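User: Show me a protein chain along with its predicted structure.
Assistant: Here is one chain, sequence first, then structure tokens.
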Amino acid sequence: MAIRRMMRHAAMAAALTCMLNAGVAHAEADSRPVPPAKVAEQAKARKAAMARLAFLEGDWEGTNIGWTPDGKETRSRSADSIAFRMGGEILTIAGKKFASGAGPDDPPVVENFGVFDFDVQAGVYRVTAFVRGLIKKGTGHFREDGKLQWSLEGGNRNVRFLAWPEIGADGTAGWTEAGEFSYDGGKNWAPAFVIHFRPVKPPAVETGSAQPE
């Protein structure tokens, strides 16, 4: 019995030694400096991917048309302020949703903030969203039809978001955001909302010559 125990202890010690050596090797590999050429290559790929999001940049407003699960339609006003930061490394989105019938000076009922960046190794956009005191993370990609699609973790249903550039009937360049939800694991999707964003019009400047006193 003593010999068997000794053999088991020796085997366990050998296995532990292998695990420790593997951990050290992995840590050493992670700590090795990335060659400058590789860093430059990744930076170039990251900026190229982020540049595809340029159609989102600007100050926007639009009517948020939503649908409840039972098909009831709702309407409200939404506004997004979107900008590249850190030399184009990230894209930030500050969004506001106003109550139905809200006036221009009324405060928003919902505010959210999001950040897009690009994971070169995984080949996907990383999304971090701050909504109603919660932090949600997700990933995004461009579909074959050219639309940007992303999703966020959490919740009791699958939700995906879409965005694509759009030219309005008046020729104004803008973009559209749409949300879809699924209660069956993504087999079937139903529309949740759609917003046709157009540029925020600058305030009118009064013209005319001032009369001397």
